[in-house]
Amino acid sequence: MTPSRPAASWVTRLPWLAAVGFALVPVLFTAVASAVAQITAAGESSSALLIAVGAALSAAVGIIVMRISPPSLRDYGFRAPSKLRSVWWFVPPILTLPIIAATAGIHVSAPTLLAYAALAIAVGVNEEVWFRGVVLAVLRPHGARVAIVGTSLLFGILHLVNLLAGESLAVAGLQLAFAVLFGVVAAELAVRTGSLWPAIVWHAAWDFLNFAGGNSTSPLALSGIGVCCVLLLVYALMLWRGVDRFEGPVA
């Protein structure tokens, strides 16, 4: 079961250093936008929009990097997904959405929801462009499995910023576990379907529901994240078997 289309693979002299450097770009843009929101004492909706602008600019830089690199945008995954049966038509990732919606609830106003919708879309595109696009391509010459694990660990570790926000070790640990598992599944979907769009849509929808719930760390919300972690772990293991068959020719 080999893809008929090439996958993005970018050979660099120092791939791991390049991967870390590229992974830090969206973090830097988000940090600057967050700092601007704090300095200007922006309200909740305005802060969300400011960070959305930062994420959108970061995504634009990522797409420029893709354009000037050897692989094409289509090779990176800007194309319709294929081999949908091999990923069980995305049912497990889709199930995470009603779980988090039911356990986190909605705790923000309607105008703020619109701002968070813009933020969720910008973040979803931004992080998938960099992590499942550029970083995955840089590590892919070492094999699909190495690339999946490498980009997912970077994705999870960089989400440890929650510790700096005052989260408890237990909550930060659960969020780290989810981020890593999310990264693994998103990367597996990119490898198996040859497309970034499934992960972008899932990422944006997940973030929006979390924003709508006020990024709740209530026992109920955390239990929902725990259930999602179990679901994604099982799904990741199922997709992992035979993922090398989707390696295909590389650009």
Automatic annotation (TrEMBL):
<keyword id="KW-1133">Transmembrane helix</keyword>
<feature type="domain" description="CAAX prenyl protease 2/Lysostaphin resistance protein A-like">
    <location>
        <begin position="112"/>
        <end position="209"/>
    </location>
</feature>
<keyword id="KW-0812">Transmembrane</keyword>
<feature type="transmembrane region" description="Helical">
    <location>
        <begin position="171"/>
        <end position="189"/>
    </location>
</feature>
<feature type="transmembrane region" description="Helical">
    <location>
        <begin position="47"/>
        <end position="66"/>
    </location>
</feature>
<feature type="transmembrane region" description="Helical">
    <location>
        <begin position="220"/>
        <end position="240"/>
    </location>
</feature>
<dbReference type="InterPro" id="IPR003675">
    <property type="entry name" value="Rce1/LyrA-like_dom"/>
</dbReference>
<feature type="transmembrane region" description="Helical">
    <location>
        <begin position="114"/>
        <end position="139"/>
    </location>
</feature>
<protein>
    <submittedName>
        <fullName>CPBP family intramembrane glutamic endopeptidase</fullName>
        <ecNumber>3.4.-.-</ecNumber>
    </submittedName>
</protein>
<keyword id="KW-0378">Hydrolase</keyword>
<dbReference type="GO" id="GO:0016787">
    <property type="term" value="F:hydrolase activity"/>
</dbReference>
<dbReference type="InterPro" id="IPR052710">
    <property type="entry name" value="CAAX_protease"/>
</dbReference>
<keyword id="KW-0472">Membrane</keyword>
<dbReference type="Pfam" id="PF02517">
    <property type="entry name" value="Rce1-like"/>
</dbReference>
<feature type="transmembrane region" description="Helical">
    <location>
        <begin position="87"/>
        <end position="108"/>
    </location>
</feature>
<feature type="transmembrane region" description="Helical">
    <location>
        <begin position="146"/>
        <end position="165"/>
    </location>
</feature>
